[in-house]
Description:
Helix content is 47%, strand content 5%. Helix 1 (10-35) runs antiparallel to helix 3, helix 1 packs antiparallel against helix 4 (121-130) and helix 3 runs parallel beside helix 4 (121-130). By secondary structure, it is mostly helical. The protein has helices at residues 10-35, 60-75, 87-110, 121-130, 139-159, 221-228, 232-238, 243-248; strands at residues 167-168, 181-184, 189-192, 215-217. A hairpin with a 4-residue loop joins strand 2 and strand 3. It has two domains: 10-159, no CATH class; 167-248, no CATH class. Residues 36-61 are annotated as: Disordered.
Amino acid sequence: MTTRTENEKPAQAAREAMLWIELLLRQFPELLGELAPSRHSPSAPPPDLGVPSAPTGRTRAEREEALRAEQLHGLTPSGPTTAPLRLHVSDAIRDISDGVVELDEAVHDRLRLPRPRRAQVAERLLRVAALLGPAAGDPLLTAHIRDEARRMARRCTRALGAAEPVVRVRGRCPWCGSVSLRAFPARRSVLCVNPACRCTGRDCDCRTDPAHRHAWSEGAWARLAAESGGDLTELTGSTVDSAEREVRR
Ligand SMILES: [Zn+2]
Ligand SMILES: [Zn+2]
């Protein structure tokens, strides 16, 4: 079990975990909606007539969820109008579905509870949320739930094509001198958003690729703060991917 920050307040991590789970509960159905065929073919069998080869042990709802993901995975054409392949959407659904099962089981295991029964994504998420209380005495577990919920919520946001959060950062870009520094918490990075900005780095794509923006990852923030006339504490704070900021925007 890994965690990003060792010395944070468990109550804060639990709050963040809850907010990320809520976000995921709102976004995941949207992601399933992206996969659903826009209209049903009249000749198609009703959904509850047979998925004969479905693995045993899964609930009907789980099978339907998996089937919907598989249909548009390019394996089965769904009627006369073949829906566009949306691999990134079905990949995200698969990744999040697996992640939620693993998280649910890991939390139960860590709390020495019996293995959780099978359920759909939303039900499992609600179950994990309900265990944040019993998990309160275990900062590692709480942080793990928060980190996993955030990772999956971010995966969902990306697959839905939603814009990622951007936070304005004080100071001037050391390369172009503009007030154009922005923190992108979802990728833990600071970028200069001035399209004309070019650095002198031989390997940096901002010289050759017009779409590339010069970026500073975590190791370069102290130097960036010093050279931009900014503030390292503010800069670091701006790059925290907080659920509170996410639900406010
Ligand atoms: Zn710049
Ligand atoms: Zn550059």
